[in-house]
UniProtKB/TrEMBL annotation, chain A:
The lineage of its organism: Bacteria, Bacillati, Actinomycetota, Actinomycetes, Propionibacteriales. It comes from Nocardioides fonticola. GO terms for molecular function: ATP binding. This is ATP-binding cassette domain-containing protein. Pfam families: ABC_tran (PF00005). Keywords: Antibiotic resistance, ATP-binding, Nucleotide-binding, Transport. Its main location: membrane. It is a peripheral membrane protein. Belongs to the ABC transporter superfamily. Residues 12-247 form the ABC transporter domain.
From TrEMBL, chain B:
InterPro entries: ABC2_TM (IPR013525), ABC_2_transport (IPR000412), Nod_factor_ABC_transporter (IPR051784). It comes from Nocardioides fonticola. It is found in: Membrane. Keywords: Antibiotic resistance, Membrane, Transmembrane, Transmembrane helix. Coiled coil: none annotated. It is a multi-pass membrane protein. This is ABC transporter permease. The chain crosses the membrane at residues 41-60, 72-91, 126-147, 153-177, 189-208, 244-263. Its main location: membrane. Residues 30-232 form the ABC-2 type transporter transmembrane domain.
Length: 323, 272
């Protein structure tokens, strides 16, 4: 065993970790304001939050690229301030924006990246072909990166992050900007990786992605952790089972709300008014719609759905995830 | 914590190992660009030497004493021109291409997610730039040979060392500058207030004594003059040991400082 490497150590352990930096005009930005996180080996762990919550700053610290401003951070049991290269040798990083080399062909992007990890040319080529297969890009091996679709580029970036056979894969907003079909292909690949024992640490502002992929997650807001747990537990703790959505004709919601509140008063329901719709949290959504209808309130459209992480986020922060 | 983060990572790779791991990347870049480099390093000197040295220089009749020992204006001009060219090439290679590594193609983001450190990445990039400057200056020096501007066969070889060192000095300085800016607009300032005045007034085109006593001393303090002076003394076989050693010492000292400036620039940029 390599000295200094503890196999039982959590993959990520953060205590009171902060990140602040000074911008060009002298303002101090506190991107992360003291977070405690522990990621266990083999799990899929998510950071859920809106843009600007501090997720990407956290990922750059976990990736042993950006030093922490305060607090204690250990990655694979090692201190990134001392053992950065040793940590990065065991991580795979899939950044938010693709950092592929547009001037190289698809396969060379993998081969040259593999060389940074010290793999011989022969091994690098072998690994590149394996990963092209994994990413369904074998027939694009000689294509220029520019010719790839957004989904293909993402798959290539993920393939590249696997050249060193990492123990931990960091994914920053892995499916942002992809169409639904490409997202499902990617989710499937990530699930396969997780099955093969790779620890996944990802950020997302998509609640469905977090629910699909994460065993556990933290909800981040304004540089702090607002809640932590398994997706279903978080929903159970912070939301009702169902949500009834009521949409009113433009300008009529404010007038209708008191009627809605009165109608659902007996149903242990909670009413949340958003700019474009009213949400009624209750265990039985259909019962809410019935009560509202009986009270003579007529929304333009209604919908009953299962509560999601979006509702958890709204409850915890008073804001929606995607503005 | 910031002091802790500044201590060199104990697990860092050796310099040679890190360079070898990036060799394939830079060789690919070289393969992509060598033709353009070769053509421009061949044509640029030819145009300059013909226009300034032969045609314009034909009007200049001066005593060799006034031309720092050169028998013709062309022989005076050539070594300084190559040193100035080394500076321009080094600056060109460390402005947009370096900023692009952060801003446009984000190749540095990818490299720094691997075991490579900012020091490794800066060293490999600057090695590539210096190699390219050396190659371009070598072509330049060869193109100049038929014009009879060298006093000895070994002179231009020594001069190539001085020219390459001049390029290395500017490469490190401008690399550090490019790491510290956010917009390419800052390059305009660098070119207008740095590169052009240096190119014109560092003794490449006329003896710095022509600038007057004060002007000559200001010129002697500029980094480019050190390279011009050393390059010229080598080509004209007029090496004066104290001056040559002083030039060499200044070039080496600024390059050493420039290297620290470049590495800290990249480290700070990445630490955000």
């Amino acid at each position: 065993m390599t000295p200094g490497i503890d196999p039982a150590a959590p993959v990520v352990s953060a205590r009171g970790v902060r990140k602040s930096f000074t911008t060009k005009d002298g303002a101090v930005v506190e991107a992360v304001r003291g977070i405690d996180v522990e990621v266990r080996r083999g799990e899929a762990f998510g950071f859920l939050g809106p843009n600007g919550a501090g997720k990407s700053s956290t990922m750059r610290m976990v990736g042993a690229v950006s030093p922490v401003s305060a607090g204690e951070l250990r990655i694979l049991g090692l201190d990134p301030a001392v053992d950065g290269p040793r940590i990065r040798a065991r991580l795979g990083v899939c950044p938010q924006e693709d950092t592929l080399d547009n001037e190289l062909n698809v396969r060379d992007n993998l081969v040259i990246y593999a060389r940074y990890f010290g793999l011989s040319r022969a091994v690098a080529r072998e690994r590149a072909d394996e990963l092209l297969e994994f990413a369904n890009l074998t027939d694009k091996a000689r294509a220029k990166v520019e010719e790839l679709s957004g989904g293909m580029k993402r798959r290539l970036t993920i393939a590249r992050s696997l050249v060193n056979r990492p123990e931990v894969l960091l994914l920053d907003e892995p499916t942002t900007g992809l169409d639904p079909q490409a997202r499902h292909v990617l989710w499937d690949q990530l699930f396969r990786l997780k099955q093969s024992g790779v620890t996944l640490v990802l950020t997302t502002h998509y609640m469905d992605e977090a629910e699909q992929l994460c065993d556990r997650l933290v909800v981040m807001d304004k540089g702090l952790i607002a809640a932590e747990g398994a997706p279903l537990d978080l929903i159970r703790t912070h939301s009702s089972r169902e949500v009834a959505e009521l949409r009113f004709a433009p300008g009529q919601q404010d007038a209708a709300l008191p009627g809605v509140e009165a109608a659902v008063a007996g149903l242990r329901a909670r009413v949340e008014a958003l700019p474009d719709r009213a949400l009624v949290y209750a265990d039985d959504g259909e019962a809410v719609l019935g009560a509202v209808h009986d009270a003579g309130v007529r929304p333009a459209a209604t919908l009953v759905r299962r509560a999601s992480l979006e509702d958890v986020f709204l409850r915890l922060t008073g804001r929606t995830l995607v503005d | 914590m910031s002091t802790e983060a500044r201590t060199p990572p104990s697990a860092a790779l050796g310099a040679g190992v890190a360079l070898a791991r990036q060799a394939d990347y830079w060789l690919t870049v070289a393969r992509r660009t060598w033709r353009a480099t070769a053509v421009s390093s061949f044509l640029a000197p030819l145009f300059y030497v013909v226009a300034l040295g032969v045609v314009l220089g034909g009007f200049i009749e001066a005593d060799p004493d006034q031309l720092e020992g050169a028998s013709t204006y062309l022989a005076f001009l050539a070594p300084g021109l190559v040193a100035g060219h080394a500076m321009q090439l080094a600056v060109g290679e460390t402005t947009y291409p370096v900023l692009g590594m952060f801003k446009w193609n984000r190749v540095y983001d990818a490299m720094l997610a691997t075991p490579l450190t900012p020091t490794d990445v800066a060293r490999a990039h600057l090695t590539f730039v210096v190699a390219r400057v050396a190659l371009a200056c070598a072509v330049y020096d060869v193109v100049l040979a038929p014009f009879g501007v060298y006093e000895s066969w070994w002179g231009p070889i020594l001069a190539l060392g001085a020219q390459t060192l001049t390029g290395a000095m500017f490469a490190t300085l401008v690399y550090g500058y490019s790491c510290r800016i956010t917009s390419e607009a800052a390059f305009g300032v660098l070119f207008r207030l740095g590169v052009f005045p240096l190119f014109l007034f560092s003794g490449a085109f006329f003896p710095i004594e022509n600038l007057g006593t004060v002007g000559a001393w200001v010129a002697r303090l500029t980094p480019l003059w050190q390279g011009v002076s050393l390059s010229r003394m080598c080509c004209l076989d007029t090496l004066d040991a104290p001056t040559a050693l002083a030039n060499l010492a200044v070039l080496l000292a600024i390059t050493a400082l420039g290297w620290r400036w470049a590495v800290t620039g990249l480290e700070q940029r990445v630490a955000r």
